[in-house]
Amino acid sequence: LGYNAAQAFNNQAVDLCAQGRCVEAAALLEQALALDPGSAEMRLNYARVLARVGRPEESRREVEKAAAKRP
């Protein structure tokens, strides 16, 4: 259940941010990462959203976390 719910939150967040609703998307991605903290894909999506809402330092940290997860 955790992975499927996390993926659903991730997908919804991507759609929301594409509609310009990136603050809402960030909240959904936080929920997704709480369920699946090891997902590099979700971390990168979160980093993109953070950058779009003007949180560049947090975005950079998420990119670093995602890079650490990749082989």
Provide structural commentary:
By secondary structure, the chain is mainly α. About 80% of the residues lie in helices and about 0% in strands. The longest helix is centred in the first third of the chain and has 17 residues. It is flat and about 30 Å long. The termini are far apart.
| Count of DSSP strands | 0
Largest sheet: none
Task: State the helix count.
Answer: 4
Mean residue pLDDT? 94
Structural class of the secondary elements? mainly alpha
Measured on Cα atoms, how large is the radius of gyration? 11 Å
Along the chain, the helix and strand elements come as HHHH
How far apart the termini lie comes to 25 Å
Helix content: over 70%
List keywords for this structure.
single chain; 71 residues; mainly alpha; 4 helices; 82% helix; flat
Write the layout of secondary structure elements.
Elements: H1 2-18, H2 22-35, H3 40-52, H4 56-69
Helix pairs in contact: 1-2, 2-3, 3-4
Brief write-up:
This protein has 71 residues and is an all-alpha fold. The protein has helices at residues 2-18, 22-35, 40-52, 56-69. Helix 3 runs antiparallel to helix 4 (56-69).
